[in-house]
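FORM 7B: Structural annotation worksheet

SECTION A. Query
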Amino acid sequence: MKKVLFILTSVIALVLSSCSNDDIPVSQSTTFKIDPANVIRPFTYEINPGDLEGVDSDYSLRVRLLVYNSEGILAQSGTQYLSSYASIVSTSVNLEKGDYTAVVITDVVEKEGDDISWACWELSDEHSLTTAKVTDLGYIGGKSKILGIGSKKFSVTGEAEEISINPSPAGAVLCTMWRNIHTFSDVDMIVLETNRSSDYLVMNSEGGYNVAIENDNNNYSWRIGYLEPSNYPNSTHVYGYYFTLPVDNISFKYRIDTSNSESSYTNAMLFNIKAGSEYYFEIDLCDPDYDDGISYGGFDVSGDRSMTGATVEKLFGGTEAQPIDGNCVKLSSFIQ
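SECTION B. Predicted structure
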């Protein structure tokens, strides 16, 4: 009887030991290599070479890694801060065997110690892949608003893995130029505004994203950029860069506000704004090619190099720069 009990005890112990080993999840170190330079690489259209390169000294490039399991639930995450786009991020996380989707989000932020004091984008509901949302916080931001997103599906099989992810720009860069800004003494502000907006994006199960579009009954309720001539007393021409998420069938207009609270509008310019593309907009308050009238226009300049030294005709590309009736004499009144 003792011999039988001893044999049964041994068998039970062996079975329990075997089951216990099979149920222990085995984590495997997975290394991610992230190249954030890919986010700004498509943007080469610059007023002055180097305008869009680098991160200003007061800011940091935030690189966030989110790893979701096969159920779309966040399994691991991490954040690194860089001083430039040229740095390669290398980070390792422990993952169990299985299928995953890795998402990388890059943006520029201002930090005070460990706290973020300024950012153009907010990430929320990231616990699930299909609810993860990146929202525009409403700042114009300039080149610091450029947002990058990348993703990759992969499997952990039990061997060491290295996953490379090259995020891409999630939107487009708009270069804007205001020329002869002091032509009229009563012009207070010049605004480039739009009738549609894309204020946030939501990730999907494939690791891509869908952009939410707003439309205020075709009213021009959103502004891309604006200029107040009084802020630039020593400048004749002023330019800037702006970033926007993709929007199809979006129209742009210039609005000119004067000191007596009257506003004038140009005709609409229709575009399909694509991620990774570049666009150039210009308004000239005293264009000699249009009898010193006001000309304006916009053009898709994706893939072109610096426009330094180009003429107005070339900048408008084949679009019609349309003069507004009026005499543009230095310090004359815009409203006749």
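SECTION C. Observations
DSSP finds two helices and 22 strands in the chain. Helices lie at 2-23, 312-315.

SECTION D. Sign-off
Analyst initials: ____
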